[in-house]
Amino acid sequence: MSAYDCFPHQVLKAEMERRAAAAAKAAEEKAAKAAAKAAGAAREAARTAIPPSDMFKPEYDALFERPAPFGALDAEGVPLEDASGEPLSKSQRKKLIKEMEKQAKLNSPK
Questions:
Q1: 42 in the same domain as 75
Q2: Is the pLDDT assigned to residue 3 strictly greater than 60?
Q3: How far are the Cα atoms of 45, 53, 78, 80 from residue 75, in angstroms, in the given order?
Q4: What residues are paired with 73 via a beta bridge?
């Protein structure tokens, strides 16, 4: 008498189906994670290709996930105004300059 003889056929079949469904769900989740990781890597690769002086231009707002474009830019490409035309504060400009410096490190050849 084997261990399987103790359980009805329907119970064993239901357990096998449950395990198969769980394995399929795990495979789907793994594939979704891999796709999200690949999309993130592609987005980062696209970001690193942008020169720091161009990163605040309106055509790159979607790539850098900004909700609204900046107004005027100075000669170095740092925004002077927000989308509504209001001048940016000194602390806001400092943060943006730090972002540009970070972008310069990413953009520099290795």
A1: no
A2: no
A3: 26, 9, 8, 10
A4: 79
